[in-house]
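Let's practice the habit of predicting before peeking. Look at the sequence and jot down your guess about where helices and strands might fall. Then scroll down.
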Amino acid sequence: MPDGRHSPADGFPEFRARFPWHGPHLQTLRNFLRRPEHPLPLGERRHFDMDDGTGDVLLGALHRPERASGRPLAVLLHGLTGCEDAPYVRSTAAALLAEGHPVLRLNLRGAGPSAPLCAEHYHAGRTGDIRRVLSLLGDADTRDGVVLGGYSLGGNAALKFLGENDFPVPVLAGFSVSAPIDLSGCAQRFLRPANRVYHDRMLRQMKALALACRPPLDPRWRDAILKSRTTWDFDHLLVGPRHGWSGAEEYYAVNSALGFLPRIRVPTLVLHALDDPWIPPDAYLSFDWASNPHLTPLLSPGGGHVGFHGEGGVWSDRCLAVFLRRLPQRRSSESAGT
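Done guessing? Here is the structure:
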């Protein structure tokens, strides 16, 4: 439907919250209050050397389905303060493996097990790292194509990358879940008193992760981390200047996925809950989805932030499975990058 809302006729399930996870906050907190396991088969550890002079190395976990199915590799990007073992990443990985997809759970720069191997850290628009990782995948990994998707901050990065249209391997499709496509609006929303508990916990984690990267850390950036009293401060004093922008607002303007949505040229599923306590709905409701037929927006009235704990399982995973089943399979003999 033009505004991103859908009916059962679209072929996608409707979101119905599973008891007792009713309301945006319980949906958002469910993975923290009762962390699910989402068991996965043993994966293969992959190392991806960055070529930017930092010596940084990103790590990922690659899983293959029991039997080859010709389905594209799914590359999953976690959200802010997350890693390959975030419950939402493991949930989608398990769901896609069951559908016959190989899956790469990627740790972004400085995240999770990548932290001791990195001097720098990821941000909402660091798409060069994604491009580098894809270029280092072997032909056996990408011969059936790639599907790229992410959650929250990783979702913004995935959409931005898709809109840049500079793929070193055949990227057949993409998806995002609860992406902050307007970074400035999201930053302001996150500072509201209603989000204080979320905010303070996230800020502590952001500081700890930034300080945990491979030493030595320039004293200027250490001071910026320690002086930050809000997540906006963190972006304004550290993330923006460290990556060449004047501060938070320029960082947000350059890297918000909203400006890249019109340029996406591969089928892309965009999942978001309009009651997300962290992300205002305005950017999702005002964007002209009908202007880009490559985009399939599913805007649910409920679901919280990267929640969607519903009847029948995680709603976003169920919708993604439907979406990917509709993709035409790519012939391995096609040339890369087409």
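How did you do? DSSP finds twelve helices and ten strands in the chain.
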